[in-house]
């Protein structure tokens, strides 16, 4: 039997999503906090786990949420995320950390039921990907940490000192991130950092 987990800190959005899916999935497990979600995921013995996430309400937990999503690859958890339309760079970022499906939040009422059915019935991606899947450049856990540190305001030299590595190593990781997200200019890079900063500063719970 499939196990569905919902992480949506915003009470209104949590209610909307559960109302949309309750008929098909009456046993959906809704969570408001990240620790509660992680505990529930690890406590489930289902071999068919699907995680539904609304990222806009994560606030101060947003960076931890992204790290958690990236680590889910090894657990073979299928992930569907919705993100507000005003954060377009989050779509390629989420795909680069192995989110199988990303929806625009404003279209959730019409798209979510069918999208949930599709992802629940799909096979999870293997931990080691081959063929077409591998051709899509992904972001490693270290590269994600580097990106989030940039978004937090750290400089390349500060990160190099923290990690006891060279400035060129940080630059190499940054290059890989830009390649994975198909960033074509420094302006694109700044836009990504701005979106990350904005989402992490929106503390919405309830």
Tell me what the structure shows.
- The protein has helices at 11-21, 34-43, 62-71, 90-96, 108-121, 131-135, 141-151, 156-163, 167-180, 186-201, and strands spanning 3-7, 29-31, 49-54, 78-83, 101-104.
- It has 206 residues and is of the alpha/beta class.
- The chain has 2 domains: 3-128, Rossmann fold (3-Layer(aba) Sandwich); 134-201, Winged helix-like DNA-binding domain superfamily/Winged helix DNA-binding domain (Arc Repressor Mutant, subunit A, Orthogonal Bundle).
- The chain has a 5-stranded parallel β-sheet with strand order 2-1-3-4-5, sandwiched between helices.
- The protein is globular.
- 30% of the residues are buried.
- Residues 130-134 have low confidence and may be disordered.
What's the quick description here?
The chain is of the alpha/beta class and 206 residues long. It has helices spanning 11-21, 34-43, 62-71, 90-96, 108-121, 131-135, 141-151, 156-163, 167-180, 186-201, and strands at residues 3-7, 29-31, 49-54, 78-83, 101-104. It is globular.
